[in-house]
Request: fold
Amino acid sequence: MTSSYQLNHSDHLLHVLFDEQQKSLHISDAAINSIAAQLNLPRAQVESVLEFYSFFHRDLRGRFDILFSNCTSCGDLELMHQLCERLHVEAGKTRADGLVSIDQTSCIGMCDQGASMLVNGLTITSLSGEIIDHMAGLIESETPISQWPATWFRIGNNIRKEGLLLASSFKPGAALKSMAKRSSDEILEEITASGLKGRGGAGFATGMKWQFCRDAQSDNRYVICNADEGEPGTFKDRILLNSHADAVFEGMTICGSVIGAKQGYLYLRGEYRYMLEPLKNTLQQRREEGLLGSDILGLGFDFDIEIVIGAGAYICGEESALIESIEEKPGIPRIRPPFPVTQGLWGKPTVVNNVETLVAAARIVLHGHHWFEASGTWQSKGSKLLSVSGDCARPGIYEYAFGTTVQKILDDAGAENVQAVQVGGPAGRLIAAKHFNHCIAFEDIATGGSFMIFDESRDLLEIIHNFARFFAHESCGFCTPCRVGTTLLKNGMHKLCGGHATAHDLDEMKCTAAMVSRRSHCGLGMTAPNPIRDGLNYFPHLFEARLLHQEMEPEFNLDASLEEARKLTHRDDAEAHL
Reply:
């Protein structure tokens, strides 16, 4: 941290730790001391960050460090076991010769791309048995990753349906130039009049958030773009950053102008590291064109953007945990109030907006609030990007006006024999067929963007079990209800799926789910029980069918019982005599 409360990309603790991990394949005690001295940070702070993020390791990893996604949409652990067998390595371990380590990780945001993995932090999609066999040979021959087939690393957008945000092109600087004859008050009024709500899931009014931050008394303010979409089944922000980065950065700049901020940060999830160089190039081009930096387009305000990259922590999608991460600390959610709009990054008023929200803001400034509010419902204005994945013919990105039914989306995606849909990721709603006539809208079925489809061939209990494991793994451990409760729920689902649970166990899970939801510190714990609670509510027959049905106890025999008691008495007397 510097006295001006700005960070240099190369000096951020998360980035320094990543570079050390790549160079030395682990982070040693000596490296911790060196990094602490280099960044003028307490050793305890460096150590706590190292322990918190799942992409950092104290133990040596392989020269080829492979992580398979265990997501229900972009994961296939059978392929992981296949590679383990080919390379004679145990999952979760590093091979004795240090060549390779293989493990699993949570969803990496490739749910429209087939089974996927990370190798040394780089993404490979559309995995198959043939690719795994080829990969095993390349690893055994120690072929550098730069010489692996380039097609393995290509990641398409899969945009299936365009709407307000995706249908038209965006010329860099267009929205900023449209601000030239309008005051910041007028721009804020435009955003407020549009009815734009946060697209990350919470749905807070964007204009109100900007207003609160602007009104907070401070000599400094910040804008943060939350690009840490870690919810399994969500990948819409990946497409926006890949093909609409200028609109994202323009939205951040407009927000900076309105609230009086001079610095912005894009917090990019670690799984999207492959986007770093293109994003940095876009930022540099914007600086050269006068769209970032000092006196932007001669409009009299300064604003610039830095990128901070996460290191594998789902909880950092929560805005206060994200702020803690940018401040080079473990991403543990803060106690609120105070809220970020009054006391955020380094104690200064801060606006944290989702990627999609900022793209919408830039287009509203360009086209006007009437253009935006003409779509949607009376409570949900505009459109919503959906990440559609799972059991359908056409997974990908779909943009719909709010008010579109679940059934319409299923039809467009080519989904048949649908058993259930998980809307909003595991933290959202698991809905059954009788609810497919409901609409995507804040007042009906709200979602941050994930839309996971499961047909009749799926074991829905195993899906819920997968979600329970996810939450238990991703809990930051700060509060007991979430730290302990999510593990109890995971264990309960494990017992149920194994056929060993009784009706009493279901009752225990219901009570635990209620406690975790009510008593957890942040949104992760509050929503972690949702898949189990929805499952019990809408699919009770599946739970009941998996219960252990014990045989009836034999008829009670008084004479036999008395004889057994005499034997036990004689044995106890003999033991006492000895």
Notes: Confidence is low (pLDDT under 50) at residues 1-5, 550-556, 568-578.
